[in-house]
Hints:
This protein has helices at residues 32-36, 72-78, 81-90, 96-108, 117-122, 129-143, 154-179, 193-202, 213-226, 233-242, 248-259, 267-280, 285-293, 314-329, 335-349, 351-355, 362-373, 380-401, and strands spanning 3-8, 11-19, 25-27, 56-59, 64-67, 70-71. By secondary structure, it is mainly alpha-helical. The chain folds into 3 domains: 3-49, Single Sheet (Rubrerythrin, domain 2); 70-260, Citrate Synthase, domain 1 (Orthogonal Bundle), CATH 1.10.580; 267-373, CATH 1.10.230.10. The strands form 2 sheets. Strands 1-2-3 form a 3-stranded antiparallel beta sheet.
Amino acid sequence: MDKAVLTYDTLTHEMPIIEGSEGEKAVDISKLRQATGLITLDVGYQNTGSCTSTITFIDGDRGILRYRGIPIEELAEKASFSEVAYLLIYGNLPNREEQQAFSQRLTQNSMIHEEMLRFFDGFPPTAHPMAILATMVNSMSVYYTDYYTEDFQADTFDLMAASLISRIRTIAAYSYKHSIGQPHVYPKRDLKYASNFLYMMFDSPVNPYIPDPDIERALSTLLILHADHEQNCSTSTVRLVGSSMANLYASICAGICALWGPLHGGANQKVIEMLEEINRNKLSIQSCIESAKDKTSKFRLFGFGHRVYKNYDPRAKILKKYCETIFRKNNYQDPLINIAMELEDAALKDDFFVDRKLYPNVDFYSGILYRMIGIPTNMFTVMFAIGRLPGMIAQWKEMHDTDPLKIGRPRQIYMGNTLRHYAPMEER
Ligand code: ACO
């Protein structure tokens, strides 16, 4: 077996090398502290593997993303969102019977308890939809209690997973309807996942929802592209919370909160706000590039850069094509798309971005596409959460399937005061 050797002081410690199925290698340091008294320090986990996983493979240098071995490009073109959800959670694409049973579970779990509707009235009209989403998802753990047991069980897990995937879409659409003062629209059993969401969002007694197959496919693709991204900030949060044996709803609620931040899922909202600001204030593209490079400026090019991708994010490539197609087909008038393309062009020619390998990430074009679909800007991160849910659930399940389940508990290097004593108030 391959091993790495660490020499420290008078000690020599051998550590096994773990090799993944795609040739990635890791040093197993699990016995390091026991053998040497040392821990590893890696702020922001830039170089730390928290688990082994069989769900998603990313090669950031080559711009590769695969779910359970299948390239994202194939799934984006050929699969439905529910097929991808099944693939991520259960490991393989569903056959006809499995797909039917899964779809049926989603349909049967698409309505939310009528009492939960009252929750929407308790939020102020200005409430951010991510706060509403996290609260409602956590509330599911008190309404659907018969779905979970203390110890993880396969049959109740199937129901919990379907309940979350289906109801998150209903919750998101209802929160939008509530925010615009319209009555909510119940889900329809014969509609596919993305179509049903659009129907609940945009149908009303006076303006019936008219389906557009291109828009419905675009939304389905957006959800597929977001469905998993291995150990990112929100998914790691789901694993960490779940590792304490917290139930799936609570773990997902925590993940949704982590996703909200502008350095993560919240970047899609920030991208549009940035493009709007450029448009409103007639800023030149070059001045934005200069501000993004200036360390004293607060301006950051949102939708650019990625912890893992040091090449064009494959998801951004697919979304850019969708934007162009729908833009042309519907003769859509949006100055922001031109600004986005000019900004991308300028950044990709600039040494600062080239040297740091900063390329557009999934959030750069997703916001523009959501705008074309008619999703309000403050709901973009909610859309990300709907898409990411199957991945979070799959990762939670994988962790629970691992024996023994280990609670997540990083260590630290303490840099604070050494021992000192309580001083009475008058002596401070
Ligand atoms: N604009 C300007 N400079 C940037 C950007 C950016 N968007 N991203 C990175 N940089 C610079 C940093 O200033 C740093 O420069 P330095 O080496 O001179 O100090 C260098 O590139 C490395 O950046 P880090 O922030 O150290 O990289 P890290 O891997 O920690 O962060 C992150 C990745 C958070 C995504 C970062 O690129 C960023 O803030 N991007 C903008 C926000 C964004 O789009 N987030 C969405 C990510 S995708 C997702 O979560 C779904």
